[in-house]
Amino acid sequence: MARIVQFDRLGGPEVLTLRDVEAGAPRAGEVRIRVQAIGLNRAEIMFREGGYFLQPRFPSTLGYEAAGVVDEAGPGVTGFAPGDPVAVVPSFSLNDYGTYGDLVIVPASAVVPRPSTVDPVTAAAVWMAYITAYGPLAESGEVRPGDHVLITAAASSVGQAALQIARHVGAIPIATTRSAAKRQRLLDAGAAHVIVTDQEDVPARIMEITGGEGVRLAFDPVAGPGVETLARGIAPGGSLVVYGALDPRTTPLPNARSYPALSTRTYTLHEITTDPERLRRAVAFVNAGLASGSFTPVVDRTFDLTEIVEAHRYLAAADHVGKIVVTV
């Protein structure tokens, strides 16, 4: 038997239930993992509430990330054996697989080896955050040493990873937050500058910081009408990359009548995690950063699996800095 978190209807954290179910055997191309830690993501809140890009099929489970050890490899799977320490990267549909449990089955393509020096809690906090930030900040080649980069909602786990990756490639990260209480924590996390959006004029502060040039890249998970404000702080020829939809309102397309020429696009980490070659490069990049100490995942708080409802409430409150991890 396995303990799995499931829900039967859309709603708040209270719809989540920890149940005993048959563990099942991994099929061809799958791996069963004995989970030690689970990384939580805001996408899972949106999925639970019905605001994600796909709707749940009930009973549904959750979870894109986990760390643990291989329990059993399915037919045809090579490179993994029982007892191997591994982590799960987000590369599948939540309607097909999930990681909220103590014994879960996931595609072998979503499993990466976990270095013996990386503990389960740290490993569960890595892949969603660092691969999401890796694409625009490192793989694309848009960001060069000395460039200013705007990282909005920088207290999130992706924001924290983006700060570290920007520093790693020689860029100058400018963080935004709605709360002045998070300013010092963001500076301590590597931000060269912090803009408190509830108190400051964002484009004016960007121009002050950059000497009137603007940022080379704005990396934003919020979307909505606020992208027009961000666009006014982007340098001519720069980029606005939107990787989330925290604001459910319509997102306008900045146009040439109001802004310098800039590139605007959406982005998700699935562009990388579902492409074996791009994923291989991303894993190599992140593992190198972890090994050198350039990348240190920030874990705000841990909860036990039996506290999954409280963990989701804490995540939804958005008072944290970094990752929330559930231990098993």
Describe, in plain words, how this protein is organized in 3D.
InterPro entries: ADH-like_C, ADH-like_N, ER, GroES-like_sf, NAD(P)-bd_dom_sf. Keywords: NADP, Oxidoreductase. It comes from Actinoplanes octamycinicus. GO terms for molecular function: NADPH binding; oxidoreductase activity, acting on NAD(P)H. It is a single chain. Helix content is 27%, strand content 26%. With 328 residues, the chain is an alpha/beta fold. The strands form three sheets. Strands 3, 4, 5, 6, 7, 14 and 15 form a seven-stranded mixed beta sheet that branches. Helix 5 links the parallel strand 9 and strand 10. The longest helix is centred in the last third of the chain and has 17 residues. It is globular, with a radius of gyration of 20 Å.
Question: What can be said about this structure in brief?
Answer:
It comes from Actinoplanes octamycinicus. It is built from ten helices and 15 strands.
Secondary structure layout plus pairing:
Layout: E1 2-6, E2 17-21, E3 30-39, H1 42-49, E4 66-73, E5 85-88, E6 103-107, E7 111-113, H2 120-124, H3 127-139, E8 148-151, H4 157-168, E9 172-177, H5 183-188, E10 193-196, H6 202-209, E11 215-220, H7 227-231, E12 234-242, E13 263-266, H8 270-273, H9 276-292, E14 299-304, H10 308-317, E15 323-327
Parallel strand pairs: 8-9, 8-11, 9-10, 11-12, 12-13, 14-15
Antiparallel strand pairs: 1-2, 3-4, 3-6, 3-15, 4-5, 5-7
